[in-house]
Protein backbone atom coordinates (compact mmCIF):
# COMPACT_ATOMS: atom_id res chain seq x y z
CA UNK A 1 0.00 0.00 0.00
CA UNK A 2 1.29 3.46 -0.88
CA UNK A 3 1.66 5.63 2.17
CA UNK A 4 -0.08 9.01 2.35
CA UNK A 5 2.43 11.78 1.71
CA UNK A 6 2.62 15.03 3.68
CA UNK A 7 3.68 18.39 2.26
CA UNK A 8 4.53 20.48 5.33
CA UNK A 9 5.53 19.03 8.71
CA UNK A 10 3.66 18.95 11.99
CA UNK A 11 5.37 20.28 15.09
CA UNK A 12 5.62 17.15 17.27
CA UNK A 13 6.05 17.69 21.02
CA UNK A 14 6.87 14.56 23.00
CA UNK A 15 5.96 14.32 26.68
CA UNK A 16 6.29 12.44 29.92
CA UNK A 17 5.55 9.21 31.73
CA UNK A 18 2.77 6.87 30.50
CA UNK A 19 1.58 9.18 27.76
CA UNK A 20 5.12 9.19 26.34
CA UNK A 21 4.89 5.39 26.11
CA UNK A 22 1.48 5.63 24.39
CA UNK A 23 2.85 8.32 22.05
CA UNK A 24 5.41 5.94 20.55
CA UNK A 25 2.90 3.07 20.34
CA UNK A 26 0.43 5.25 18.45
CA UNK A 27 3.08 6.42 16.00
CA UNK A 28 4.44 2.90 15.45
CA UNK A 29 1.10 1.12 15.11
CA UNK A 30 -1.46 3.62 13.83
CA UNK A 31 0.37 6.36 11.94
CA UNK A 32 3.68 5.37 10.36
CA UNK A 33 2.31 2.23 8.62
CA UNK A 34 -0.06 4.48 6.65
CA UNK A 35 1.57 7.93 6.46
CA UNK A 36 5.00 9.17 5.45
CA UNK A 37 4.99 11.09 8.69
CA UNK A 38 6.79 14.42 8.50
CA UNK A 39 7.35 16.20 11.81
CA UNK A 40 9.67 18.70 13.43
CA UNK A 41 10.38 17.01 16.76
CA UNK A 42 10.73 18.67 20.17
CA UNK A 43 11.25 16.70 23.36
CA UNK A 44 9.20 18.38 26.08
CA UNK A 45 9.89 15.60 28.55
CA UNK A 46 10.87 17.06 31.92
CA UNK A 47 14.53 15.87 31.79
CA UNK A 48 15.13 17.65 28.48
CA UNK A 49 13.33 20.78 29.61
CA UNK A 50 15.72 20.82 32.56
CA UNK A 51 18.71 20.28 30.26
CA UNK A 52 17.76 23.18 27.99
CA UNK A 53 16.59 25.56 30.71
CA UNK A 54 13.08 25.17 29.22
CA UNK A 55 14.25 26.74 25.95
CA UNK A 56 12.89 23.69 24.11
CA UNK A 57 9.34 24.63 25.13
CA UNK A 58 9.67 28.15 23.77
CA UNK A 59 11.28 26.82 20.58
CA UNK A 60 8.35 24.45 20.08
CA UNK A 61 5.83 27.27 20.48
CA UNK A 62 7.58 29.42 17.87
CA UNK A 63 7.77 26.39 15.56
CA UNK A 64 3.96 26.17 15.73
CA UNK A 65 3.86 29.80 14.62
CA UNK A 66 6.14 28.87 11.71
CA UNK A 67 4.40 25.71 10.50
CA UNK A 68 0.83 26.40 11.65
CA UNK A 69 0.00 23.05 13.26
CA UNK A 70 1.39 21.19 16.26
CA UNK A 71 0.53 18.07 18.22
CA UNK A 72 1.54 17.70 21.87
CA UNK A 73 1.89 14.80 24.28
CA UNK A 74 0.91 15.31 27.92
CA UNK A 75 3.72 16.76 30.07
CA UNK A 76 4.57 17.07 33.74
CA UNK A 77 4.02 20.42 35.40
CA UNK A 78 6.72 20.55 38.05
CA UNK A 79 5.88 20.93 41.73
CA UNK A 80 8.05 20.55 44.83
CA UNK A 81 7.79 16.76 44.68
CA UNK A 82 8.88 16.69 41.02
CA UNK A 83 11.82 19.01 41.73
CA UNK A 84 13.13 16.45 44.20
CA UNK A 85 12.20 13.41 42.08
CA UNK A 86 13.90 14.68 38.92
CA UNK A 87 16.67 16.71 40.57
CA UNK A 88 15.53 19.93 38.90
CA UNK A 89 17.37 23.23 39.19
CA UNK A 90 14.03 25.04 39.56
CA UNK A 91 10.27 24.50 39.44
CA UNK A 92 9.77 24.92 35.69
CA UNK A 93 6.51 26.46 34.54
CA UNK A 94 3.78 24.45 32.86
CA UNK A 95 4.74 23.85 29.19
CA UNK A 96 1.10 24.35 28.29
CA UNK A 97 1.04 27.77 29.95
CA UNK A 98 4.26 28.79 28.16
CA UNK A 99 2.92 27.71 24.77
CA UNK A 100 -0.46 29.35 25.40
CA UNK A 101 1.23 32.59 26.39
CA UNK A 102 3.33 32.69 23.21
CA UNK A 103 0.43 31.75 20.90
CA UNK A 104 -2.14 33.88 22.82
CA UNK A 105 -4.79 31.36 21.90
CA UNK A 106 -8.09 29.95 23.06
CA UNK A 107 -8.49 26.31 24.10
CA UNK A 108 -11.55 24.46 22.83
CA UNK A 109 -12.42 21.13 24.45
CA UNK A 110 -15.25 18.83 23.46
CA UNK A 111 -16.26 15.26 24.41
CA UNK A 112 -15.68 12.28 22.13
CA UNK A 113 -19.03 10.53 21.78
CA UNK A 114 -19.38 6.75 21.83
CA UNK A 115 -22.87 5.27 21.86
CA UNK A 116 -22.27 2.93 24.80
CA UNK A 117 -20.77 5.59 27.09
CA UNK A 118 -23.55 7.64 28.65
CA UNK A 119 -23.07 11.01 30.43
CA UNK A 120 -23.35 10.94 34.20
CA UNK A 121 -25.76 13.89 33.96
CA UNK A 122 -28.90 12.35 32.47
CA UNK A 123 -30.24 15.66 31.14
CA UNK A 124 -27.30 16.04 28.73
CA UNK A 125 -28.38 14.94 25.26
CA UNK A 126 -25.89 16.97 23.19
CA UNK A 127 -22.18 17.76 23.54
CA UNK A 128 -21.04 20.75 25.59
CA UNK A 129 -17.84 22.35 24.33
CA UNK A 130 -15.61 24.43 26.58
CA UNK A 131 -13.65 27.49 25.40
CA UNK A 132 -10.89 28.38 27.83
CA UNK A 133 -9.07 31.69 27.60
CA UNK A 134 -5.45 30.58 27.57
CA UNK A 135 -3.72 33.78 28.59
CA UNK A 136 -2.83 35.51 31.85
CA UNK A 137 -4.84 35.30 35.08
CA UNK A 138 -3.46 33.13 37.88
CA UNK A 139 -1.25 31.17 35.44
CA UNK A 140 0.91 34.24 34.85
CA UNK A 141 0.50 35.76 38.31
CA UNK A 142 3.30 37.19 40.43
CA UNK A 143 3.22 35.67 43.90
CA UNK A 144 4.88 36.45 47.21
CA UNK A 145 4.96 34.66 50.55
CA UNK A 146 4.51 37.49 53.07
CA UNK A 147 6.86 36.86 56.02
CA UNK A 148 5.24 39.17 58.57
CA UNK A 149 3.71 42.58 59.26
CA UNK A 150 3.69 45.07 56.42
CA UNK A 151 1.65 46.83 53.75
CA UNK A 152 0.95 45.39 50.29
CA UNK A 153 0.16 47.94 47.56
CA UNK A 154 -1.00 47.84 43.95
CA UNK A 155 0.96 50.44 41.97
CA UNK A 156 0.84 51.40 38.28
CA UNK A 157 3.52 53.52 36.62
CA UNK A 158 2.85 54.68 33.07
CA UNK A 159 5.31 54.57 30.17
CA UNK A 160 6.61 58.06 31.04
CA UNK A 161 7.51 57.00 34.56
CA UNK A 162 4.60 58.74 36.25
CA UNK A 163 2.82 56.89 39.03
CA UNK A 164 -0.87 57.03 38.06
CA UNK A 165 -2.41 54.59 40.51
CA UNK A 166 -1.71 53.35 44.04
CA UNK A 167 -4.01 51.34 46.27
CA UNK A 168 -3.43 49.45 49.50
CA UNK A 169 -4.21 45.79 48.97
CA UNK A 170 -3.90 44.77 52.60
CA UNK A 171 -2.14 45.76 55.81
CA UNK A 172 -0.71 42.44 56.93
CA UNK A 173 -0.69 41.93 60.69
CA UNK A 174 1.25 38.69 60.27
CA UNK A 175 2.44 36.15 57.68
CA UNK A 176 0.29 35.54 54.62
CA UNK A 177 0.39 35.24 50.87
CA UNK A 178 0.01 37.76 48.05
CA UNK A 179 -0.70 37.41 44.32
CA UNK A 180 -1.12 39.86 41.43
CA UNK A 181 -2.55 38.81 38.08
CA UNK A 182 -3.17 40.59 34.81
CA UNK A 183 -4.74 40.39 31.38
CA UNK A 184 -4.81 42.51 28.21
CA UNK A 185 -7.69 43.96 26.22
CA UNK A 186 -6.10 42.64 23.02
CA UNK A 187 -6.02 39.07 24.36
CA UNK A 188 -9.59 39.28 25.65
CA UNK A 189 -10.69 40.56 22.23
CA UNK A 190 -8.94 37.63 20.50
CA UNK A 191 -10.63 35.26 22.93
CA UNK A 192 -14.04 36.74 22.17
CA UNK A 193 -13.57 36.55 18.40
CA UNK A 194 -12.39 32.93 18.62
CA UNK A 195 -15.45 31.95 20.67
CA UNK A 196 -17.99 33.70 18.46
CA UNK A 197 -16.44 32.20 15.32
CA UNK A 198 -16.45 28.71 16.83
CA UNK A 199 -20.13 29.03 17.78
CA UNK A 200 -21.04 30.12 14.27
CA UNK A 201 -19.01 27.36 12.65
CA UNK A 202 -20.60 24.70 14.87
CA UNK A 203 -24.07 26.32 14.94
CA UNK A 204 -24.03 26.22 18.74
CA UNK A 205 -25.43 28.65 21.29
CA UNK A 206 -22.72 30.37 23.31
CA UNK A 207 -22.55 31.01 27.03
CA UNK A 208 -20.03 33.30 28.68
CA UNK A 209 -19.64 33.53 32.44
CA UNK A 210 -17.46 35.55 34.85
CA UNK A 211 -17.94 36.98 38.36
CA UNK A 212 -18.30 40.67 37.49
CA UNK A 213 -20.43 41.37 40.57
CA UNK A 214 -17.37 40.74 42.74
CA UNK A 215 -14.55 41.59 40.33
CA UNK A 216 -15.82 44.97 39.23
CA UNK A 217 -12.80 45.85 37.07
CA UNK A 218 -11.07 42.60 36.09
CA UNK A 219 -14.07 40.37 35.27
CA UNK A 220 -16.22 43.34 34.28
CA UNK A 221 -13.71 44.13 31.53
CA UNK A 222 -14.21 40.66 30.05
CA UNK A 223 -17.99 41.10 30.13
CA UNK A 224 -17.93 44.53 28.48
CA UNK A 225 -15.50 43.54 25.71
CA UNK A 226 -17.49 40.39 24.84
CA UNK A 227 -20.77 42.31 24.67
CA UNK A 228 -19.32 45.12 22.53
CA UNK A 229 -17.76 42.70 20.03
CA UNK A 230 -20.95 40.63 19.86
CA UNK A 231 -23.20 43.65 19.29
CA UNK A 232 -20.95 45.20 16.63
CA UNK A 233 -19.74 42.17 14.68
CA UNK A 234 -21.65 38.95 15.41
CA UNK A 235 -25.21 39.65 16.51
CA UNK A 236 -26.66 39.68 12.99
CA UNK A 237 -24.87 36.45 12.01
CA UNK A 238 -25.99 34.74 15.24
CA UNK A 239 -29.61 35.70 14.59
CA UNK A 240 -29.41 34.45 11.00
CA UNK A 241 -27.99 31.15 12.23
CA UNK A 242 -30.73 30.80 14.84
CA UNK A 243 -28.30 30.70 17.75
CA UNK A 244 -27.91 33.01 20.76
CA UNK A 245 -25.23 34.56 22.94
CA UNK A 246 -25.96 34.38 26.66
CA UNK A 247 -24.04 35.99 29.54
CA UNK A 248 -24.40 35.01 33.18
CA UNK A 249 -22.40 34.77 36.39
CA UNK A 250 -20.08 31.78 36.68
CA UNK A 251 -21.92 30.29 39.68
CA UNK A 252 -25.23 30.64 37.84
CA UNK A 253 -23.72 28.95 34.79
CA UNK A 254 -22.54 26.02 36.92
CA UNK A 255 -26.07 25.56 38.29
CA UNK A 256 -27.71 25.93 34.87
CA UNK A 257 -25.41 23.51 33.06
CA UNK A 258 -26.61 20.60 35.20
CA UNK A 259 -30.22 21.16 34.08
CA UNK A 260 -29.50 21.94 30.42
CA UNK A 261 -29.62 19.40 27.59
CA UNK A 262 -26.30 20.64 26.15
CA UNK A 263 -25.46 21.57 22.60
CA UNK A 264 -23.66 24.84 23.35
CA UNK A 265 -20.21 26.40 23.73
CA UNK A 266 -19.33 27.51 27.26
CA UNK A 267 -16.69 30.28 27.22
CA UNK A 268 -14.68 30.59 30.45
CA UNK A 269 -11.77 32.57 31.77
CA UNK A 270 -8.48 30.71 32.19
CA UNK A 271 -8.92 29.17 35.65
CA UNK A 272 -12.67 28.57 35.29
CA UNK A 273 -12.07 26.78 31.99
CA UNK A 274 -9.32 24.67 33.50
CA UNK A 275 -11.65 23.40 36.23
CA UNK A 276 -14.89 23.14 34.24
CA UNK A 277 -13.33 21.31 31.31
CA UNK A 278 -12.25 18.52 33.66
CA UNK A 279 -15.69 18.44 35.26
CA UNK A 280 -17.42 18.16 31.87
CA UNK A 281 -15.00 15.57 30.52
CA UNK A 282 -15.51 13.35 33.57
CA UNK A 283 -19.28 13.76 33.50
CA UNK A 284 -19.42 12.97 29.78
CA UNK A 285 -17.31 9.86 30.30
CA UNK A 286 -13.61 10.23 30.90
CA UNK A 287 -10.69 12.61 30.46
CA UNK A 288 -9.53 9.96 28.01
CA UNK A 289 -12.52 10.90 25.82
CA UNK A 290 -11.97 14.65 25.51
CA UNK A 291 -10.42 16.58 22.62
CA UNK A 292 -8.40 19.74 23.14
CA UNK A 293 -7.17 22.27 20.60
CA UNK A 294 -5.48 25.64 21.12
CA UNK A 295 -6.30 28.13 18.34
CA UNK A 296 -4.37 31.39 18.05
CA UNK A 297 -5.77 34.63 16.58
CA UNK A 298 -3.43 34.17 13.58
CA UNK A 299 -4.86 30.72 12.85
CA UNK A 300 -2.21 28.47 14.43
CA UNK A 301 -3.36 25.17 15.92
CA UNK A 302 -2.00 23.01 18.74
CA UNK A 303 -3.74 19.69 19.46
CA UNK A 304 -3.31 17.64 22.63
CA UNK A 305 -5.11 15.24 24.95
CA UNK A 306 -7.04 16.89 27.77
CA UNK A 307 -5.60 14.57 30.44
CA UNK A 308 -2.25 14.36 32.20
CA UNK A 309 0.67 11.95 32.09
CA UNK A 310 -1.08 9.10 34.00
CA UNK A 311 1.68 8.82 36.60
CA UNK A 312 0.17 5.89 38.49
CA UNK A 313 0.09 3.73 35.36
CA UNK A 314 3.64 4.76 34.49
CA UNK A 315 5.02 3.48 37.79
CA UNK A 316 3.28 0.17 37.14
CA UNK A 317 4.74 0.12 33.63
CA UNK A 318 8.23 0.59 35.09
CA UNK A 319 7.65 -2.54 37.17
CA UNK A 320 6.91 -4.49 34.00
CA UNK A 321 3.16 -4.59 34.56
CA UNK A 322 0.61 -4.20 31.75
CA UNK A 323 -1.67 -1.18 32.07
CA UNK A 324 -5.09 -0.36 30.69
CA UNK A 325 -4.41 3.29 29.88
CA UNK A 326 -6.89 4.95 27.54
CA UNK A 327 -5.08 6.08 24.34
CA UNK A 328 -8.10 7.60 22.57
CA UNK A 329 -7.65 11.28 23.50
CA UNK A 330 -3.99 11.12 22.46
CA UNK A 331 -4.97 9.46 19.18
CA UNK A 332 -7.52 12.24 18.60
CA UNK A 333 -4.78 14.82 19.21
CA UNK A 334 -2.88 13.29 16.31
CA UNK A 335 -5.97 12.99 14.09
CA UNK A 336 -6.94 16.59 14.78
CA UNK A 337 -3.48 17.78 13.78
CA UNK A 338 -3.34 15.54 10.70
CA UNK A 339 -6.80 16.64 9.58
CA UNK A 340 -5.90 20.31 9.93
CA UNK A 341 -2.57 19.74 8.14
CA UNK A 342 -4.49 18.07 5.32
CA UNK A 343 -6.98 20.94 5.15
CA UNK A 344 -4.30 23.62 5.07
CA UNK A 345 -2.18 21.79 2.48
CA UNK A 346 -5.08 20.53 0.33
CA UNK A 347 -4.32 16.84 0.95
CA UNK A 348 -7.74 15.19 1.19
CA UNK A 349 -6.22 11.73 1.76
CA UNK A 350 -4.59 12.94 4.97
CA UNK A 351 -7.79 14.44 6.34
CA UNK A 352 -9.72 11.36 5.25
CA UNK A 353 -7.31 9.09 7.11
CA UNK A 354 -7.83 11.15 10.28
CA UNK A 355 -11.60 10.66 9.93
CA UNK A 356 -11.21 6.88 9.48
CA UNK A 357 -8.90 6.53 12.46
CA UNK A 358 -11.30 8.42 14.71
CA UNK A 359 -14.19 6.28 13.46
CA UNK A 360 -12.14 3.15 14.20
CA UNK A 361 -11.58 4.34 17.79
CA UNK A 362 -15.28 4.97 18.39
CA UNK A 363 -16.40 1.70 16.77
CA UNK A 364 -13.88 -0.25 18.83
CA UNK A 365 -15.36 1.17 22.04
CA UNK A 366 -18.93 0.61 20.83
CA UNK A 367 -18.05 -3.04 20.13
CA UNK A 368 -17.31 -3.43 23.85
CA UNK A 369 -13.51 -3.33 23.64
CA UNK A 370 -12.25 -0.61 25.97
CA UNK A 371 -9.82 0.38 28.69
CA UNK A 372 -10.66 0.15 32.37
CA UNK A 373 -11.68 3.79 32.82
CA UNK A 374 -14.60 3.29 30.42
CA UNK A 375 -15.85 -0.13 31.53
CA UNK A 376 -17.73 1.20 34.57
CA UNK A 377 -19.53 3.74 32.34
CA UNK A 378 -20.52 1.30 29.60
CA UNK A 379 -24.20 0.51 28.92
CA UNK A 380 -25.83 -1.68 26.30
CA UNK A 381 -22.84 -3.93 25.60
CA UNK A 382 -20.70 -6.25 27.71
CA UNK A 383 -17.36 -4.48 28.16
CA UNK A 384 -14.12 -6.33 27.58
CA UNK A 385 -11.29 -4.55 29.39
CA UNK A 386 -8.01 -4.68 27.47
CA UNK A 387 -4.51 -3.30 27.89
CA UNK A 388 -3.33 -0.18 26.10
CA UNK A 389 -1.44 -2.25 23.54
CA UNK A 390 -4.44 -4.49 22.89
CA UNK A 391 -6.69 -1.46 22.48
CA UNK A 392 -4.38 0.06 19.89
CA UNK A 393 -4.13 -3.30 18.07
CA UNK A 394 -7.94 -3.59 17.86
CA UNK A 395 -8.18 -0.04 16.56
CA UNK A 396 -5.59 -0.86 13.91
CA UNK A 397 -7.65 -3.86 12.78
CA UNK A 398 -10.56 -1.53 12.06
CA UNK A 399 -8.39 1.03 10.25
What does it look like?
The chain has 399 residues and is an alpha/beta fold. It is built from 14 helices and 18 strands. The strands form 5 sheets. A 10-stranded mixed sheet has the order 4-2-5-16-15-6-7-14-12-13, sandwiched between helices. A two-stranded parallel ribbon has the order 1-3. A two-stranded antiparallel sheet has the order 8-11. It is globular.
Secondary structure: elements and pairs:
Elements: E1 4-5, E2 10-14, H1 17-31, E3 35-36, E4 39-43, H2 46-51, H3 55-67, E5 69-72, H4 80-86, H5 95-103, E6 106-111, E7 128-133, E8 142-146, E9 150-157, E10 163-172, E11 176-180, H6 185-202, E12 205-210, H7 218-241, E13 245-249, H8 250-259, E14 264-268, H9 270-284, E15 290-295, E16 301-305, H10 311-318, H11 328-345, H12 348-366, E17 369-370, H13 372-375, E18 384-385, H14 388-398
Parallel strand pairs: 1-3, 2-4, 2-5, 5-16, 7-14, 12-13, 12-14, 17-18
Antiparallel strand pairs: 6-7, 6-15, 8-11, 9-10, 15-16
Amino acid sequence: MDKIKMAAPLVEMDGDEMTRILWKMIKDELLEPYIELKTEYYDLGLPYREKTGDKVTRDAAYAIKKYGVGVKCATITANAQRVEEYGLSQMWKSPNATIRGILDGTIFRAPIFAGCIKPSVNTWKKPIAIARHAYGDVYAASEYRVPGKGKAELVFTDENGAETYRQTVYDFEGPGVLAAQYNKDSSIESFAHACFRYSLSEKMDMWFATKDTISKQYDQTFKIIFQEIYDKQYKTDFEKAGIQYFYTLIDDAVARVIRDEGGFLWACKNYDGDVMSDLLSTAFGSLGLMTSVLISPEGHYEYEAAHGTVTRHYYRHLKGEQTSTNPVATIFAWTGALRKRGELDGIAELSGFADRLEDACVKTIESGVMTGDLAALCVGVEPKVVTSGEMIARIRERV
